[in-house]
Amino acid sequence: MQRRLSATIIGVVMGALLLTGAVTFALAAHAARNRTRIQLAAEATDVATAVKAEFNGGRDARNLLAILRAPFKDENAVLLIVTKTGQLVDLNRGLKAATLPAGLRASELHTGQLLSGREVSGSHGTTIFAAAPFTSTFTLAKGDAPTVTQVVILTRSPDTGLTQALPWFLLSAAIVLLIAALVGDWLGRRIIRPLREAEAVTSKIAAGDLSAQIPIPDHPYAELASLATSINTMAAALARSKGMERQFLLSVSHDLRTPLTSIRGFAEAIADGAAPDNERAGEVIAAEARRLERLVKDLLDLARFDARRFGLDPRSVDVVEVAADTGEGFRPKAEELGLRLDFQAPTTGAVTASADPDRLAQVVANLVENALKYARSRVLVGVASSAQGAVIWVDDDGPGIPPEDLPRVFDRLFMSSRYPARQVGTGLGLAIVAELVSAMGGSVRAESPT
User: Fold this and answer.
1) Across the strands, what pairs with 237?
2) For the segment 87-129, what is each residue's pLDDT rounded down to a tens digit?
3) CA angle at 276 for the pair 271 and 282, rounded to the nearest 5°
4) pTM to 2 decimal places
5) Closest to 321 (Cα-Cα) out of 367, 372, 383
6) 3-state SS class at 343
7) Which CATH number, 2.30.30, 3.30.450, 3.30.70, 2.60.40, labels domain 2-162?
């Protein structure tokens, strides 16, 4: 990756240099052409003025151009006559059709403008030309001295300076690319080092070492620091989840072992004829078997939630009726534990919601079971109507939930051991509540005065 990063930086810099150089040279060439055209037009005007003075003075000025153009080795200069029909003829060829320099065409010289006394300038390929007209009289072979329009045409190849600038550009480009390579290598090392550290730590985490942490330097890149923090947070969360999973498995194992021990003990006593009361022993075996059945059912429910393989039959439900009937089913258990179970609901108006009645009853049952574990003297089941919909709550007068545990009480692996609890339910009820309420489009939360 370090090599690819360095190569990418060098490639980007090289592309930027090429693009900048191309644009700069194009603009320089355009500016040079414009500058040459303006200068050439001024020179053509000056030459035309000098030639006109010679002609009007009665002297033969046809050799004057050779003298005027001597300092300009790359310049072509011609003196032509523009006839009234727009034809260009050459004095030196006996007024025959002129051969234009640098491959110019008569149409490019706009002879109409020349006849009207206006200058013409432009470009033909890489050649710049300027034509300056003037009127003069000269003696023909017959002795006539007519006034004619003559034109001085100058051509020149513009000097863009590219020949002189190119070696310096190549030298500066090489220096810039060298600097880019050094910067790319340094930047690559600076970025790759923490990534390699992150790779090493994630490999340890994958191998089971959840205590591995990535060192965060004092002045890191913000993105790399965020990555390191995220990986460290992930490792801590995995370690915490693994601890909770271990605690969960120990708790479930205990919940399985306790009823199995009772079932096995009473079954062996009955088989050996040593049970003092076979009927009571049978009741204990049946009760513990139901407890095992409920635990296995809750574990299967959680497995179905993970696989999203549980069904819902939502319809309009009387929430008061479902909550009241479910709560009433726990009244014998509450009385057995010495607790008072109360129910509170609106006296007027029905409270309805779109939900699966059986799953809603399961939610209420799990909440009541959890309250029976910790209540000191009473449990209250309540139903109300709000702007968001139906609200069900279960309240008890137990010791409360520590603030640090409130966000996690509905986690399936969370088992609080801060306060002793009665043996009611399986300990998986709140996790099932959270899954079912979410599946039915609701929300659930825990509150505590502590």
Assistant:
1) none
2) 888 766 666 777 788 778 888 888 888 888 899 998 888 888 9
3) 60
4) 0.46
5) 383
6) strand
7) 3.30.450
